[in-house]
Amino acid sequence: MKFEMMTAAQMQELYQSLIQHYSDCKAQNLKLNMARGKPAASQLDLVNDMLTCLTSAEECMCDGIDARNYGELAGMPAARRYWADILDCLPEQTFVGGSSSLNLMFDVISRAYTHGLLNSVRPWCKEETVKFLCPSPGYDRHFKVTEFFGAELITVPMTPEGPDMDVVEDLIKDPTVKGIWCVPKYSNPDGIIYSDVVVRRFAELKPAAPDFVIMWDNAYCIHEFEGEYVKLPNILDLCEQAGNPHMAIEFASTSKVTFPGAGISVIASSKENITYLTKLFGIQIISHDKINQMRHVKYLKNKEHTLEIMKRHASELAPKFRVVSEALEREIAPYGFANWNRPKGGYFVSLNTMPGTAKRALALCSDAGVTMTPAGATFPYGKDPQDSNIRIAPSFPPVEELEKAMDIFCTCLKLAVLEKLLNV
Amino acid sequence: MKFEMMTAAQMQELYQSLIQHYSDCKAQNLKLNMARGKPAASQLDLVNDMLTCLTSAEECMCDGIDARNYGELAGMPAARRYWADILDCLPEQTFVGGSSSLNLMFDVISRAYTHGLLNSVRPWCKEETVKFLCPSPGYDRHFKVTEFFGAELITVPMTPEGPDMDVVEDLIKDPTVKGIWCVPKYSNPDGIIYSDVVVRRFAELKPAAPDFVIMWDNAYCIHEFEGEYVKLPNILDLCEQAGNPHMAIEFASTSKVTFPGAGISVIASSKENITYLTKLFGIQIISHDKINQMRHVKYLKNKEHTLEIMKRHASELAPKFRVVSEALEREIAPYGFANWNRPKGGYFVSLNTMPGTAKRALALCSDAGVTMTPAGATFPYGKDPQDSNIRIAPSFPPVEELEKAMDIFCTCLKLAVLEKLLNV
Questions:
Q1: Which residue of chain A comes nearest to B99, CA vs CA?
Q2: Coil vs helix vs strand at A268
Q3: pLDDT at A14 > cutoff 90
Q4: Best exposed site among A283, A295, B142, B240 by fewest CB in 10 Å?
Q5: How confident is the model over A317-324, as a mean pLDDT?
Q6: What is the pTM of this model?
Q7: Quick one: closest CA in A to B54, which residue?
Q8: Using CA atoms, how far apart are residues B99 and A286, in angstroms rounded to an integer?
């Protein structure tokens, strides 16, 4: 029965039984973690062959280049070809980096501040004001990069098709608005795929700032765990067709393909952007780890074979997302105070509970040994104006632990709402 | 016979025979490279076991941490212990990074500009002027990092014991002087080891700028190719004793221990500095490649075993430095117009030829197919005021090629000087 149909006495009764269950759970002294999009050890075991796939000096040679030595700042040509295959662009449109795409994003924003991007009139640090658009709920680490450099973060609402483009199109008339963060496939945390229309509207933006940048973090570009690979319209091609060839900078990595934090990362953009950024990056590094690049090329081969490997990951992840979905359907849906998404890829479930109760629910979780992403983290400055959004990351715990964690989570969600309704 | 003792006719005769030899060399269409401190393929072969030393998930576990997953921003504890052993400090005094120590240095300077160092009153970008001391000849990539951020580069002369400390002690009275670049062991390119007195004077500096930083790039800390390991006084300890605990930031990497550009890097400094920098670095990355860290720990083990591996490298490098030294003794010494060092470690020989002839000599080299580090590169802004210093990097070519390259190089050196003396 929905809470709104219950009498106070019925709610009181439910509250008492939940409190009892909650204190039983607490007594178990559990330590469960649904905070971060971290694969489980058993999932990593599926790609352990990575450790032994490159074993000789000969295998480090490609195109006459020895991956064991300095050189090739933009990456091994074979690695650039690999990413061009995955992201459907030209090898010259890629820069293959080290183990972290976040670091590449940081470096782009950092350099925008200190030196400016390709089309900047001046470095952003010389601007009076820099504003950055943050579709929310979104990824906290993105928001923090721009916050770190003093940008004013502007919340843009998310819709089931992606960021609200009416709002975006209006905001970019302001020349101090310098860019936007996007996770176009299985967005973090909403798990939606931007619609073709939204992608096209992005490519066709006419921002007042000449150096407006779309930070297109394609983190989950091949990360389906249910159904077949979904093709997203190519933002780089569409930008070029729309006369905005340098506006989008795309990022991706193999952190959730091989090993998190030990993969390879990539920037894809116009050739001019890659040339510009490569020149800037030449000040800080001679070349990234090309042996690891060759290891990845050897193991992942090409897009087709990579998609096969992603099916292994899917076999680990799908049951976990099912646990989340079934628990929410069973424990939360009947009470009608929350809604959530049912993603087919990515690493998150985004849930919106009754406004004003998210923080309290997660505090209850924490006291019972269940760690979640802090409430508010999915909004700029860590502040959810509604105190409603919660990000669930079910990938790390084994299924049995996840079931326990979801039981506690659902209990805490209901408790927090009942506390509010009953004014406890 | 020294040039200064020759008659014009004698010089003319020598010049003609050199021109003939030079044009014979040119006709061979050689392509030889003595430009960069790049190990030869045969040297890299000595450490190929690196590729196969870590093969299982179990080997990725250490101290209960799975190197295959996200986490441990400051590095695997085992990797921090490894570096603490090498650099003679505590594990908590280290931050283990990715494949490039240059990138760590860049990040420190970059963050000094945008956010400030531990003891900064304000970020350096908010200062009217920032000056940085560059002992010269020195490493071009160091100088370029500070130039990139708009610092005014001040040349400090090198002596056989290190930077001229009288000059340094005078310059740091200026509060806009924010730091100094140092390569304390087998300095690039002079190949000297800073004397104990110089290291101590560094630690005891009392700079006017509270956030003055000694960028202590210990790139060749274990890189002897002749004789036994030489212990350098510990700058971090001495700084602490002198009441300057946060003034020095030390850097090192395994780029010339295992594979260049695919090794692991480290920052060592006071615990407070490491805490401060780790917090800043947390914005840009979740964690560096810990699998590669474990691979290195497994292969290199500890300082003692690493020094054994360095003897293998020495066996490759020593004969090459001998070729350089013998060619210079035979071909250049008799003419008395140049001097050079005879290092026992590192990757370079630094030669000072007759002022005003270095650029011309290297242009002649280039035309005959021998690539050298550009003349001037060892000075701020790439400008050697004397046009005299030349950096020779003999590590890359095989010995036979190196002999040819040195023959051409010596020929070009003499030609350039004779052109000047004869006014050709």
A1: A289
A2: strand
A3: yes
A4: B240
A5: 98
A6: 0.97
A7: A51
A8: 10
Of A67, A149, A283, the CB nearest to B114: A149
Residue A52 has pLDDT above 90, yes or no: yes
Sheet holding A389-392, edge to edge: A339-340, A349-352, A389-392
Q: What per-residue confidence (pLDDT) applies to B424?
A: 85
The arrangement of strands across the sheet holding B349-352 comes to: B339-340, B349-352, B389-392
Identify residue B165 by its one-letter amino acid code. M
Residue of A nearest to B45 (CA): A57
Residues in CB range of B338: below 8 A, 6 or more apart? B328, B332, B351, B352, B353, B354, B413
Tell me the chain A residues in contact with residue B286 when contact means C-beta distances shorter than 8 Å. 100, 102, 141, 260-261
Show the beta-strand stretches assigned E in B73-189.
94-96, 131-136, 152-159, 162-163, 177-182
pLDDT at A204: 98
Q: How confident is the model at residue A424 (pLDDT cuts 50, 70, 90)?
A: confident
Mean residue pLDDT of chain A comes to: 97
* Residues B341-367 pLDDT 10s: 999 999 999 999 999 999 999 999 999
For residue A234, report the phi and psi dihedrals to the nearest 5 degrees. -80, 110
Of B41, B69, B149, the CB nearest to A66: B41
Give the closest-approach CA distance of A72 to chain B in angstroms: 10
Find the residue in A nearest to B42 (Cα).
Answer: A57
Task: Kindly indicate whether the ipTM for this predicted assembly is greater than 0.90, answering yes or no.
Answer: yes
**Contact assignment for B98 to A98 by CB distance below 8 Å:** yes
User: How many Å apart are CA B390 and CA B388, to the nearest integer?
Assistant: 7
How many separate helices (H) and strands (E) can be counted in chain A? 13, 15
**Smallest Cβ distance to A52: which of B55, B125, B290?**
B55
Residue B145 distance to chain A (closest CA, Å): 6
Name the closest residue on chain B to residue A68, using Cα atoms. Answer: B259
pLDDT digits (tens, 9 = 90+) for B3-59: 989 999 999 999 999 999 999 999 999 999 999 999 999 999 999 999 999 999 999
Vertex A57: Cα angle to A56 and A60 (nearest 5): 100
Three-class SS state of A181: strand
Per-chain mean pLDDT for chain B: 97
Burial of A414 (0-12, 13-18, 19+ CB in 10 A): buried
Residues of B in contact with A261 (CB under 8 A): 69-71, 286-290
Q: Do B103 and A56 touch (CB under 8 A)?
A: no
- Per DSSP bridges, beta strands A213-217 and A177-182 are parallel
Q: Distance between CA atoms of B221 and B223, rounded to whole angstroms? A: 6
Least confidently predicted of A264-278, B25-39, B403-417: B25-39
Average pLDDT of span B78-94: 98
Q: What is the percentage of chain A residues whose pLDDT exceeds 90?
A: 99
Residue A244, CB-side half-sphere exposure with 13 Å CA sphere: 23
Q: List the beta strands (DSSP E) in A161-225.
A: 162-163, 177-182, 213-217
B145 to chain A: which residues are within 8 Å by CB? 283-284
pLDDT 10s digits, B160-171: 999 999 999 999
Half-sphere CA count of B360, side-chain side, radius 13 A: 16
Other beta carbons less than 10 A from residue A10's beta carbon = 12
Looking at CA atoms only, how far is residue A363 from chain B in angstroms? 23
Q: Which two tokens stand for residue A337?
A: 């105070």
